[in-house]
Structures are given as C-alpha cells and as structure tokens.
Amino acid sequence: MKYGMVIDLKRCIGCNTCAMACKIANYTPEGVMWNRILTEGGAEQDTPEGVYPTLRMGHVPVSCQHCENPACVKVCPVGATYKDPETGVVRQDYDKCIGCRMCMAACPYTGVRSFNWEEPSYAVDVIFGDADAAPHQKHVVEKCTFCYQRLSRGETPACMELCPGRARFWGDLDDPESEVATLVRERPHRQLLADEGTKPSVYYLV
Questions:
Q1: Longest Cα separation, the chain
Q2: Any bridge partners for residue 141, and if so which?
Q3: Structural domain total, the chain
Q4: Is pLDDT above 90 for 156?
Q5: Rounded-to-integer distance, Cα 33 and Cα 9, Å
Q6: What is the pLDDT of residues 72-92, one digit of tens each?
Q7: CATH code of the domain covering residue 80
C-alpha cells in the first residue's frame, strides 16, 4: 500500500479551507502551517501571473510530499524521520527527534517543515482538534503527517473533508482501481521538483 494524494489545480480556488482544516485537526502552534496555498504568480498570497490585463490566478497547495524516496529519512541520525512500511507515509517521532534539523536541510520542498524553537504557544487556551493528534514539543521538527491519527481510524486526512471545490483526492496509489491511481493514469499531471528523484506521493492535475 502507498497512500497518496491527487490535487486538481483546475478546481482549487485558493480558499485556504484545507490549510485551516489541517491546522485545526492537528492543533498546530501559532505561526505553524503544515499546509500552505502558494500562488504561481509570486510569493505573496493571491498573486496573479502575467501582465495586466492578461492575468491568470493559479493556486498550488503545498505540504509534505510523502516521497517514495524521501531525502529526509536518509539524513536523520536517530531515525526520528521514517517511512511507515505499511502505508508509505513519511512520519516524525517527536520523542526521538534531537532537533538537528538535518531533515529540513535535506528536503528540497522549502517550507513544508517547521521547527519549534520555543515551547509551542497557541492563539486560544482551549485545546481543540483531534484528541489523538500527537502533542507538539519544543525543539522538534514538525510537518504534515497525512493526518496519521485519522488514517489509523480508517478516515481520510482533514484537508480532504471540507474542500469546497472538491479538488483533493485520496487513496492507495498501488491499487490500480483506486480513484487516485486512475486519475494519475488518465489525466495530465505534474509532481513538484520531480527531477530531484524523491518520487513524491502528491500529484497535481493540470
């Protein structure tokens, strides 16, 4: 089994609902976003590409790519970053992490990981989100886990549930009959930084 995600860029409207669903479900600290919506026109949010009046708005949701050949796993000296053998999900063991940030340096996808320099702080004092989500710790690296706590319950990642454009698809890429495998087989698509050889498990339909 190899879990993966397919995102239809023609359907994505850049509403950030998936990013907020992720943040709420995993109760990430202030300033920490595991899922970001980038725009193809520039670094600022909702920046169109082109020259007025011929402009085009393109949104690209970006989080951990859960690579089949993850560079981060190879460099972690203590095995805190590892690939789950049953699902293919690239995970983090916060209790093992020594905060060396080697995984951040090795990952070609800038910004998909964050490091808690201080004790995590939150905008509100009430804990919300999934009760079984891993607690956040000081001096550890964090990233998208494909909502592993939800996968363990037979559910889908939180970002899948509220997308108003239904731009996200989830499933087993190793199953040729799955929706994600069918979309990758039948629709034009691209992967982020495919030439890096990491073999991402996130595909973008174009």
A1: 53
A2: 115
A3: 1
A4: yes
A5: 20
A6: 999 999 999 999 999 999 999
A7: 3.30.70.20
